[in-house]
Design goal:
alpha+beta; 5-stranded mixed beta sheet; 16 helices; globular
Length: 560
């Protein structure tokens, strides 16, 4: 039943066909149910004696017999009440009701909702406990992985995030509206066949602020794309200040024919934690790897193999910097696999320049790390940059987690306002015209007038009257005779019973309209009676009915 309602309410044609005010009725508060009538047993005092109970009149029996119907009514009303609440919740999540109700609900709560996308081994709710936004809003944390999240976003700013997580063997399903997002997990990985870029697009569509920015997170979904930004930095700073490793990009396997030098490291697609990286020592192995790339149907990159002494990692979390050195113990050329020794080293100006420069790409990275390798030749080679999904390493993970917490709280104070801003209402098929279009005309403006009736004199626009009766046609007077007040005009003497027929309402032909547009001489005036001080009883002279100029016009015969 609920799935059917959600499908129907999400259909735009269904909503457009609803009567006016239907969605408004859903926002009205439900009337309170009247209390059930008290029974005779409850109305009687507890200390009543059996004799008094026998003296009770027999009128108490009918209420006991009429008691079941209210129970059935309450059962039915509770069913429809739950159904109405389900429709309200579904419509609110789909953004079909007035967003002002959602805004008022958000304004009433005294907390800000933070969505943390990370694995469950880190309890971020504990890290944000006691933190406040603007000094008055608590931070409520909802934590889930990308695989447990789904969302819906509308262009008017309404959105809802759904999560389905398992907590202690119990499946928990929740729907909420986060105010901020902290991303601590990779949104795309070819090795694990996980692609959650659609969720990043949905969050960007909804306009949810995050750390790092959603634009930078989406740009980090392809490592060659990020390396292209490092190439731009390399061209700006030069090889001495920014020693970037040489790299070759192949969009597919067709151009992977040969390499000038060996050994090389081949990186296939977009993966993490050393996956998809292969060391190739000769030309024959390189051809074999090219055939594997053909099956993956993706891109590949090659780098010269550096015989390294140790790896370097410089991380930046807000304004906090740390540098680490990792040395392989097991002898594996991948220092992040097998046994390795990790130690923190001093933060030099060279390392700080690297990470500060890389933190400016893609509009700015609040959390990032630069990875480099120090070769046995004594040179450093930068080969990768990580974003906010970088893993925390070393003995100071708790401290780094606290730095991330402080950074998120600072960003929430900057990006979130104290009062929620209502989102623009999206137009619907049943939307009424705005009140701004119903303004009264200003007194200094001439109101629009209708054209004169057919056959009447055409009045120039400059001579139009600004009175309250602009639609009355003006009466034409003969030349030399001025208009007189209506109070002084005498009654028209009785004439013949035949009256001149008025022109019909049908519009004349185009030729007649052109004729009326031209200035025409006034029609022949009818002899008006001279006013006399005392009207004589003799009858007026017989007037001969005159032909109307429009009725004898051959162009107007078709109107009959």
């Amino acid at each position: 039943m609920m799935n059917f309602l959600r499908r129907r309410l999400s259909d735009s044609s269904f909503i457009a066909n609803l009567p006016n005010g239907y969605m408004t009725d859903l926002q009205r508060p439900e009337p309170q149910q009247p209390p059930p009538p008290p029974s005779s047993a409850s109305s009687a005092p507890a200390s009543a004696s059996p004799a008094a109970e026998r003296r009770q009149p027999p009128q108490s029996a009918p209420p006991q017999q009429q008691q079941p119907p209210p129970q059935q009514q309450s059962t039915g009303s509770s069913f429809f009440s739950s159904l109405s609440n389900a429709v309200k919740q579904t419509a609110a999540s789909a953004g079909l009701v007035d967003p002002s109700s959602a805004v008022s609900a958000a304004a009433g709560r005294k907390f800000k909702l933070l969505l943390v996308i990370d694995e469950p081994h880190t309890d971020w709710a504990k890290a944000f406990r006691g933190k406040k936004v603007h000094g008055e809003y608590d931070i409520k944390v909802e934590q889930a992985e990308f695989s447990e999240i789904n969302l819906i976003a509308h262009a008017d700013g309404n959105y809802a995030v759904d999560i389905q997580v398992f907590r202690n063997g119990t499946k928990v399903v929740r729907s909420f509206r986060p105010d901020f997002v902290l991303v601590r997990q990779h949104s795309f990985s070819m090795a694990e066949n996980e692609d959650f870029r659609n969720l990043i697009i949905g969050m960007q569509y909804a306009g949810i602020p995050s750390v790092n920015s959603l634009e930078s997170i989406y740009n980090f979904c392809d490592k060659p794309w990020v390396f292209a930004q490092l190439v731009s930095v390399y061209k700006t700073l030069g090889p001495e200040k920014f020693p970037l490793i040489e790299q070759t990009f192949y969009p597919n396997h067709k151009e992977m024919l040969t390499m000038p030098t060996f050994p090389v490291v081949v990186k296939i697609g977009h993966a993490h934690s050393g996956m998809g990286k292969i060391k190739v020592d000769n030309h024959y192995d390189f051809q074999d790897i090219a055939s594997v790339v053909a099956l993956t149907q993706t891109y590949a990159t090659t780098e010269p193999f550096i015989d390294s002494k140790y790896d370097i990692r410089i991380q930046k979390i807000g304004s906090n910097y740390k540098a680490y050195m990792r040395t392989s113990i097991s002898g594996n050329w991948k220092t992040n696999t097998g046994s390795a020794m990790l130690e923190q080293i001093a933060m030099s100006d060279k390392y700080k320049l690297w990470v500060d420069t890389c933190s400016e790409i893609f509009g700015g990275l609040d959390i990032c790390a630069v990875k480099a390798v120090h070769g046995k030749d004594g040179k450093d080679y930068i080969f990768e940059v990580m974003d906010c999904a970088m893993p925390l390493i070393g003995e100071h993970q708790t401290e780094d987690r606290q730095h991330i917490t402080d950074l998120v709280v600072s960003k929430m104070n900057q990006m979130l306002s104290k009062t929620p801003i209502p989102s623009p209402q999206r137009p619907t098929a049943t939307q009424q015209p705005q009140s701004g279009s119903l303004k009264e005309p200003e007194p200094n403006k001439i109101p629009p007038q209708r054209p004169p009736p057919q056959g009447g004199p055409v009045q120039p626009q400059g001579m139009q009257s600004q009175s309250q009766e602009p639609l009355q046609p003006q009466r034409m007077y003969p030349p030399g005779q001025s208009a007189k007040p209506s109070t002084s005009q005498p009654q028209r003497p009785p004439g013949p019973t035949t009256q001149q027929p008025r022109p019909q309402a049908q519009g004349p032909s185009s030729t007649r309209l052109s004729k009326e547009a031209e200035p025409q001489p006034p029609p022949a005036p009818q002899p008006a009676p001279q006013p006399a001080p005392q009207p004589a009883p003799q009858p007026a002279p017989q007037q001969k009915p005159q032909s109307h100029p429009q009725l004898n016009d051959p162009d107007t015969h078709y109107c009959r």
